[in-house]
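$ run holo --ligand "zinc ion" --emit tokens
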Amino acid sequence: MKALVLNAIGRGFDFEDVDIATPMGREVLVNVQASGLCHTDLLFATHDIVPTPAVLGHEVAGIVAAVGPDVAQIRVGDHVVGSLAQSCGACARCLSGRSFQCTHPKSTLRRASDAPRLSRNGAGLFQGFGLGGFAERALIHENQLAVVPKELPFAQAALLGCVVDIQPKRLDAAKRFGATDVIDSTTTKPVEAVRDLLPGGADHVFDFVGLKAVAEQGLTMLGVGGGLYLVGVARPDIEIGMNIFNAIGGQKRVQGVNFGSTNAKRDIPMYAELYLQGRMNLDDLVSRKISLRDVNDGYAALKDGSLTRVVVTSF
Ligand SMILES: [Zn+2]
Ligand SMILES: [Zn+2]
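-- output --
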């Protein structure tokens, strides 16, 4: 099958032939219909985070083509969306509904003694997040897949695996997605502007940018007992400073949010339902559809911020 291979950090993706294994155990073979371009994959392609060669792509939607002998929740023909949250489904955290904090996430992957899911000339390829959506097909553990209604368009469905990746600069887009007030930090001092709107400070601040200055502004915006949620990161080496005296007095919280920290089996079908009811805007997120071989150009086009999201829909 065709797949995009990351052969070396910083060299982009190569369109190549790759072999994919047949499903074993609880694995599901998905014919990929849509695969979103996310900044996380770009971060991985430009920084030394995952081993190479690798097949990335973690916003996957498709049709189930085959299932392993132990698959219980998914059938051939189902429409599915992949989730980056790898969960065993049986540990204390999974059983309490916090599958995104699973203590045995690797149980969704093949053991080192098994043949690799993806290979090229007999040598294994790293499968990003156990998904590998930049390919014609993907072999995924059933715990990482949610079944969605067949009326849901695939491009919109793909984004449900990771809807957090919205270009934060785009204020007009923010309004279309329900923002009541927007502040342009290039023309206004953001901390003062938030204090004007919310004299007591903000209860919750979400940082999708992940730069030191932005996160520290977020901390300053918080009211007493408020929480800063770190959702996005610009580079792996970013650190922030926090004054302990102010943090104690303000009872501030800082919470890392790992890819939405959602329970995918519960939340993805719920988002799909909200979309079909017209209560969640996914259509305006899909600003361009491209083919798999054009992903490098797609990422280049995303850089200037004029596009919201780019999705691969032909393979
Ligand atoms: Zn993503
Ligand atoms: Zn678990």
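-- notes --
The chain is about 20% helix and 25% strand.
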